[in-house]
Design brief:
This protein is of the alpha/beta class and 213 residues long. The chain has two domains: 165 residues, Ribonucleoside hydrolase-like (Inosine-uridine Nucleoside N-ribohydrolase, Chain A, Alpha-Beta Complex), CATH 3.90.245; 34 residues, no CATH class.
Length: 213
């Protein structure tokens, strides 16, 4: 058994071997073989995506859409200004936002904190008699306690909301805005949302709309 970070629970040792091809070459190859046909969902720092851009000048053009969990149009969760994923590699975030992707959807932390996973949903999982529900309940315990200690009503499911948008884009209403990433100084990692695109690189600042949990 091995312990995993999500909830610090124990699971069986993985049976599958690690892939020999690294993530950067895999993404470049896949995008090149399917130009305009793939959507990438990034739920961590944008380091790998930035490396793809630097290694292949056509990478951004080959990707249909890039959906990002990261940034914030308001306050941050690591510093007053910065959200974790962008703070960890602000240079990568800047490269990505300036690369010329056809579509970038930013599901910011300021959006996801408005949709905490409430007690009633946690209890629903706990009362379900199946292994998947129990696993989901167990891995959210630590995060739920941490978020409640910070004053939220429940666990902040940032990555889950981002995947929900991938499955059904009606869960968020989008607004076209220009996003400038700060890479130095007190505001390093800040995603500065500065208004309508006006012909500049098109990005989107996602805002909650009729979200059904």
């Amino acid at each position: 058994m091995v312990q995993i970070g999500a909830g610090d629970i124990y699971v069986e040792e993985p049976k599958r071997e690690a892939e020999k091809e690294d993530a950067i070459n895999y993404l470049i190859k896949t995008a090149k073989e399917n130009p305009g046909g793939i959507t990438i969902v990034a739920i961590g720092p944008l380091t790998n995506i930035a490396h793809c851009i630097m290694k292949d000048k056509e990478f951004a053009k080959n990707v249909k859409s890039l959906i990002i969990m990261g940034g914030s149009a308001e306050k941050g969760n690591i510093t007053e200004f910065a959200e974790f994923n962008f703070y960890k590699d602000p240079e990568a975030a800047k490269i990505v936002f300036e690369a010329g992707f056809e579509e970038v959807i930013m599901v910011g932390w300021h959006v996801t904190i408005k949709l905490p996973f409430l007690d009633k949903f946690e209890n629903m999982l706990n009362n379900m008699n199946n292994e998947i529900a129990k696993f989901l309940y167990d891995i959210t315990r630590k995060g739920a306690a941490f978020d409640r200690n910070r004053g939220f009503e429940g666990s902040i499911m940032s990555d889950s909301l981002t995947i929900a948008y991938l499955i059904d884009n009606n869960v968020l209403k989008l607004k076209d805005e220009f996003v400038n990433i700060m890479t130095e100084g007190e505001k390093i990692g800040m995603s500065n949302v500065v208004g309508a695109t006006n012909g500049r690189p098109r990005t989107c600042n996602a805002r909650p709309y009729n979200v059904q949990l």
